[in-house]
Specification:
Helix content: 40-55%
Shape: globular
Number of helices: 17
Bound molecules: nicotinamide-adenine-dinucleotide
Strand content: 15-25%
Radius of gyration: 23 Å
Number of strands: 14
Distance between the termini: 37 Å
Structural class: alpha/beta
């Protein structure tokens, strides 16, 4: 079990339990206390149904290597099951089970009709060539196929920490090789490249979902005032930990579309800081060129990667890994809101302190649900075998054009060319995806807020989010009954 023994001033602190599975179960139990379901039903919702631990060999030249991997299936109340695959040396069975549970709750919160699952491979991807990673990924897929742990109606993986479109394409291709001619093969995995059945907007979906959630919070000024903030996201100081898929896109959208000031970005090898706000696309180019965020022109490079957690800001976005904000470092934080883009970044001990200090924690099971939401859109796209917007785009455009012509005729004037183009543009797949994502995040936020406001005893958004999720999963289990 992972423990931290950080010390507070003077006295030594008791070790904090950092096992994510224990943490998720504690969070579940904290919420379950507010609900009146039979104990057995709550137990059924909480436990992880199946875990498959694989150990398979891969051959690199003359060398053999054993790879350890897991796929956990937390809940079958909806099918297929859904959840990413993580490549990291920190992967353990408990971590995968906890992440699968978070997927169940997340899907329920955003009304995505999937059960929760998660996968992990215990490797450091940076130590392998693309060819070696392809071997590992294809062998992993074969293992999952053999045990019925993957399939469009069974279990559908997606990218997570350390994986992306490339790995999803290998998974899809391997699945297709084992199931020749089956029409729905592409729906066996989401987060694929566009040319392999992917959907526009999936790559940035998790980060964009984080932004939509924040925008909704900022629309509720009375609520916002409770946390000592007002106005819009424009000019708000944001610090981001992790400049990968989720962290980069959240920062990029907040910077480019909302005018927020991204004052700090932290990576495993350091933090870059600029009180005036970092140019996020330029920082991304710098990282691609040099392999690191360090030494970004015009910004201060701080050696400690955790400095990004401690800088003064309005919104802190942890977007790397779990257990980043713990009892050991929480007192050094200097923010009003924590938007949990990563899974499990805040420990219960840290959260208790944050609640006491009136810092709003927007929980992972809501904040990062944008990824699975758009994965759901990709899955339905694959099953329908047609791109969203393909049929209606031109009809839509022609209607708009007629309307603009009529308006111009009435006022006997012309719209500027650029504005006219914008007004008549038909709806594309990415517009539909972002609209569906925005609608989903707004509704989920309102549902959680409604639960929190209705149940006076709920003091935090995480417990309210869990209550929301448990209620939905419980309803589903009660309707289904128990087989046999
Ligand atoms: P990623 O691999 O693309 O990026 C993670 C980044 O964090 C990397 O750049 C890595 O170098 C950096 N990092 C690692 N350790 C760090 C540290 N100690 N301090 C600062 N940075 C560090 O992964 P991702 O897909 O962006 O996932 C990030 C988090 O978001 C994970 O918790 C994941 O489970 C969660 N998440 C991802 C998705 C998705 O769609 N990708 C969906 C939901 C949740």
């Amino acid at each position: 079990m992972a423990k931290t023994t950080g010390r507070s001033k003077g006295a030594s602190r008791a070790a904090e339990d950092l096992n994510l599975n224990h943490i998720v179960n504690r969070q579940f139990e904290q919420a379950a206390r507010h609900l009146k379901y039979p104990k057995g039903l709550l137990e059924q919702i909480k436990v992880c149904n199946n875990v498959y631990h694989m150990q398979f060999p891969v051959k690199f030249g003359r060398r053999y290597e054993m790879v350890s991997a897991w796929r956990a299936e937390h809940s079958h109340h909806r099918k297929p099951l859904k959840g990413g695959i993580r490549y990291s040396m920190m992967v353990t069975q408990d971590e995968v089970m906890a992440l699968a549970a978070l997927m169940t709750y997340k899907c329920a919160i955003v009304n995505v009709p999937f059960g929760g699952s998660k996968g992990g491979v215990k490797i450091r991807p940076r130590n392998y060539s693309a060819e070696q990673l392809e071997k590992i990924t294809r062998r992993l897929t074969a293992e999952l196929i053999r045990k019925d742990f993957i399939g469009p109606g069974i279990n559908v993986p997606a990218p997570d920490y350390g994986t992306g479109q490339r790995e999803m394409a290998w998974i899809s291709d391997t699945y297709d090789a084992f199931n020749p001619g089956a029409l729905d093969n592409m729906a066996c995995v989401t987060g694929k490249p566009m040319t392999q059945g992917g959907i526009s907007g999936r790559t940035e979906a998790t980060g964009r979902g984080v932004v939509y959630a924040l925008r909704e919070l900022f629309r509720h000024q009375k609520e916002l005032a409770k946390w000592g903030l007002s106005g819009s996201l424009e000019g708000k100081r944001v610090s981001v930990q992790g400049f990968g898929n989720v962290g980069f896109h959240a920062a990029n959208i907040l910077h480019g579309e909302d005018g927020a000031k991204i004052v700090a970005v932290g990576e495993y090898d350091g933090t870059v800081y600029d009180a005036a706000g970092l140019d996020i696309p330029a920082l991304q180019r710098h990282r691609k060129k040099t392999g690191s965020i360090r030494g970004f022109r015009g910004a201060k490079t701080l050696d400690n990667p955790t400095d990004c957690l401690e800088v003064e800001c309005d919104v802190l976005i942890p977007a790397a890994l779990e257990n980043q904000i713990t009892g050991a470092n929480v007192k050094k934080l200097n923010c009003r809101i924590i938007a949990e883009a990563a899974n499990g970044p805040t420990t219960p001990e840290a959260e208790a302190w944050l609640i006491k200090k009136n810092v709003l924690v927007l929980p992972d099971i809501f904040m990062n649900a944008g990824g699975v939401t758009v994965s759901y859109f990709e899955w339905t796209k694959n099953l329908s075998h047609i791109r969203y917007g393909r049929l209606e785009k031109r009809v839509d455009q022609a209607k708009r054009e007629r309307l603009i012509d009529a308006l111009e005729g009435l006022v006997e004037g012309k719209f500027p060319r650029k504005q006219r183009e914008l007004l008549i543009r038909g709806t594309d797949e990415v517009d539909l995806v972002n609209s569906g994502l925005e609608e989903t995040m707004i509704n989920a936020y309102k549902e959680i807020l409604d639960v929190r406001n209705r149940m006076r005893a709920l003091e935090d958004m995480r417990t309210a989010a869990y209550v929301c999720a448990i209620q939905k999963v419980a309803k589903s289990y009660m309707e289904l009954g128990i087989f046999p």
